[in-house]
């Protein structure tokens, strides 16, 4: 367990202040980190390299790699550095460390994501005169001409001659746009798993901070949304996704005990969520979809499209903005 407290200095000086204040780090780690600046400024020059290849070529020491770069790569690319795309990691680092201290400020939602994101989005759409229809799964699109003019849903047909945006997971987009989509290089992309663990205890847990990174542990990150609740996130969970849920919970409890120094209180409730297809595999040169399609009024959106970022909320927002601009 350790912290990276970025100083409130102009970028990239704030990273320097953070590394110098990080236990066990010092001027050597700072000099090593500065050797990554060329890659951050010109990420396209890293085309075809894995993150490990780039970091090793730039002389990153074992401590800096294990305590900072590897956890960052796992959390943002959902892929271990040995198989992760150096270009995407460099772009993430550029956004975090070259855009000022506020860009690297971790934010923990005070409520669930439905309250934080979905409800305000619904209100904004309806405020602009839009309408959201639920329980209306799209079964097929009318792809017979140069423009999409309709769709068949679980509630019946929809006819619309304006803009269409397919903002579904990649596999669903492939089905909707077949046979065109099946011939695209991005249609058969591999996917990386994430495992989340949510625990509620009989008494409060004394976690040192509301968000903790645990390099080298099963629980890569621990979060405390409430005094009696702990959540763990396991990215690139190629191994853990095949474990029994009880084994995963035991591993998280062991990590928690190591952090607090005490056995956790008795469990009141537990939930393990295994997302076998959480994100696209962020491998070097992995194909990603352009928002454009052969139909002039239909565009693609999703964190799996070519946003320049890995499969993150930020990437999803960029994709939505790209599709909206092209649809005007």
Automatic annotation (TrEMBL):
SUPFAM superfamilies: FAD/NAD(P)-binding domain. GO terms for molecular function: oxidoreductase activity. InterPro entries: Amino_oxidase, FAD/NAD-bd_sf, SQase_HpnE, Zeta_carotene_desat/Oxidored. Residues 60-326 form the Amine oxidase domain. Coiled coil: none annotated. Signal peptide: none annotated. NCBIfam families: HpnE. This is Putative amine oxidase. The lineage of its organism: Bacteria, Pseudomonadati, Pseudomonadota, Magnetococcia, Magnetococcales.
């Amino acid at each position: 367990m350790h912290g990276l407290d970025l100083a409130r200095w102009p970028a990239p000086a704030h990273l320097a202040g953070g590394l110098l204040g990080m236990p066990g780090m010092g001027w050597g780690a700072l000099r090593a980190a500065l050797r990554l600046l060329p890659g951050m400024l010109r990420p396209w020059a890293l085309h075809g390299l894995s993150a490990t290849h780039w970091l090793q070529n730039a002389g990153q020491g074992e401590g800096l790699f294990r305590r900072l770069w590897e956890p960052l790569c796992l959390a943002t690319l959902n892929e271990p550095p040995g198989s992760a795309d150096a270009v995407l990691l460099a772009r993430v680092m550029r956004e975090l460390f070259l855009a000022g201290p506020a860009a690297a400020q971790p934010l923990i939602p005070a409520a669930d994501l439905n309250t934080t994101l979905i409800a305000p989005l619904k209100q904004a759409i309806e405020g602009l005169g839009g309408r959201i229809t639920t329980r209306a799964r799209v079964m097929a699109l009318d792809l017979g001409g140069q423009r999409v003019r309709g769709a068949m849903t679980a509630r019946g047909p929809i006819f619309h001659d304006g803009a269409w945006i397919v903002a579904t997971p990649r596999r669903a987009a492939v089905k909707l746009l077949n046979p065109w989509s099946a011939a695209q290089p991005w249609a058969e992309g591999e996917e990386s798993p994430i495992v989340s663990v949510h625990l509620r205890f009989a008494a409060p847990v004394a976690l040192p901070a509301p968000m903790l990174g645990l390099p080298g542990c099963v629980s890569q990150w621990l979060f405390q949304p409430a005094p009696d609740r702990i959540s763990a996130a396991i990215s690139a969970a190629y191994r853990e996704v095949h474990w029994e849920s009880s084994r995963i919970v035991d591993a998280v409890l062991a990590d928690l005990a190591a952090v607090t120094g005490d056995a956790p209180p008795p469990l009141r409730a537990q939930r393990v969520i295994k997302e076998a297809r959480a994100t696209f595999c962020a491998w070097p040169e992995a194909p990603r979809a352009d928002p454009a399609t052969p139909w002039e009024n239909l565009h693609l959106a999703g964190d799996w499209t070519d946003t320049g970022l890995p499969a993150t909320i930020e990437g999803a927002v960029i994709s939505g903005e790209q599709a909206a601009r092209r649809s005007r």
